[in-house]
């Protein structure tokens, strides 16, 4: 065979023998190795650390950890590796190749392991549990970082406020809260963020991407924490309890707002007048009175309103303009606005996402909560 020509080995599939346990077919000489995946047998032991392996090849790669041998070299940057598969993965950092694609969203990865971890953002699976507290994680790396929070090293203490951190990376991010540094900037709107993960979440406000879907209804969310809070509508779970009156809430922000009813504190203050209120949402609505902002526009005339309730009242002046184009799939009732159909559907699902922070009573629409 001439130099540079590749050898090709053909396998006669009629000569393959099926595994008695799982039915997988292999050549008879490889069947014994395959059976070790069922028996757990690991006959090859490292003489340095006593770790055991099912195949001699795996032991050979492992031994290089102890010897420092790295026979595989990258032809681009000369970085060396002890394992050929590690070199293949590394080479993708130069080529940009990402052969592993998510079947739920557009995410792609250079390794099958990274894709496996990513898929857990859709399934909600968190197989790595902390042995000290009840927290769970999608991958072992995040669990390792978390475990350091239970044994915080004095080395990673903030020089400004003395807050302690589990590693230098967390300390660096924390220091930005003192310096005001926000090194991660959005290419679209120029808004800046403390961390790359905060920027990624923000990016979804431009793309409309909502990778976290509720398995009980069709609602989707851009961040996992919002999905978790939403799921409590279905489960009825209220894990946040007031330590003064024992009332319980589905979200921590609802509990914070409720506590203000005990203290009488109105923490949100308008910088333009003397108006004060208990929630950031109410302050946002108030600020429209200064800015002249009117985001709610009538579909039948040019009139605009600062509040959705103002638009609803105004629509009564257009009695003959209803088009009835949005139909309920359950009872066939028709509506002139998509928003009204959305509210109506909650009468079928039982969903009441608007909760009073004082008495816990829930409503299908924000207007009913406001009236309450």
UniProtKB/TrEMBL annotation:
Statement: the UniProt record of this protein carries the keyword Metal-binding: yes
Keywords, ordered alphabetically: Developmental protein, DNA-binding, Gap protein, Metal-binding, Nucleus, Repeat, Transcription, Transcription regulation, Zinc, Zinc-finger
GO molecular function, one term: zinc ion binding
Pfam families for this protein: zf-C2H2
Coiled-coil residues: none
SMART domains in alphabetical order: ZnF_C2H2
Gene Ontology process terms (BP): embryonic morphogenesis; regulation of cytokine production; regulation of immune system process; segmentation
Family of the protein in this entry: Belongs to the krueppel C2H2-type zinc-finger protein family.
Function: Krueppel is a gap class segmentation protein.
Full protein name: Protein krueppel
């Amino acid at each position: 065979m001439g130099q540079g020509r590749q050898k090709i080995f053909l396998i006669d599939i009629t000569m393959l023998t099926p595994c008695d346990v799982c039915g997988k077919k292999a050549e008879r000489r490889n069947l014994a190795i395959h059976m070790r995946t069922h028996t757990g047998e690991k006959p090859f032991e490292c003489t340095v650390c006593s770790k055991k392996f099912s195949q001699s090849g795996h032991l050979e790669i492992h031994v290089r950890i102890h010897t420092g041998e790295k026979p595989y070299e990258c032809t681009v940057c000369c970085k060396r590796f002890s394992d050929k598969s590690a070199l293949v993965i590394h080479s993708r950092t130069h080529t940009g190749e990402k052969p592993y694609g998510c079947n739920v969203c557009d995410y792609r990865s250079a390794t099958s392991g990274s894709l496996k971890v990513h898929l857990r953002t859709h399934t909600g699976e968190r197989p790595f549990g902390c042995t000290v507290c009840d927290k769970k994680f999608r991958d072992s790396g995040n669990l390792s970082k978390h475990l350091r929070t239970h044994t915080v090293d004095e080395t990673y203490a903030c020089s400004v406020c003395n807050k302690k951190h589990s590693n230098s990376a967390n300390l660096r991010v924390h220091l930005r809260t003192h310096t005001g540094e926000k090194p991660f900037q959005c290419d679209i709107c120029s808004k800046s963020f403390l961390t790359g993960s905060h920027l990624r979440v923000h990016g979804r406000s431009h793309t409309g991407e909502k990778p976290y879907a509720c398995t009980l209804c069709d609602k989707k969310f851009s961040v996992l924490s919002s999905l978790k809070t939403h799921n409590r509508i279905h489960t009825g779970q209220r894990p946040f309890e007031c330590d003064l009156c024992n009332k319980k809430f589905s979200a921590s922000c609802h509990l914070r707002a409720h506590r203000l009813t005990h203290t009488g504190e109105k923490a949100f203050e308008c910088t333009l007048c003397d108006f004060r209120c208990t929630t950031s949402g109410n302050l946002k609505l108030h600020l429209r009175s200064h800015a002249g902002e009117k985001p709610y526009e009538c579909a039948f005339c040019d009139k605009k309103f600062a509040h959705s309730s103002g638009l609803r009242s105004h629509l009564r002046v257009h009695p003959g303009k209803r088009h009835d184009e949005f139909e309920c799939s359950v009872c066939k009732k028709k509506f002139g606005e998509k928003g009204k159909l959305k509210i109506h559907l909650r009468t079928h699902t039982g969903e009441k996402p608007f909760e009073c922070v004082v008495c816990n009573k829930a409503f299908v629409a924000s207007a009913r909560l406001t009236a309450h």
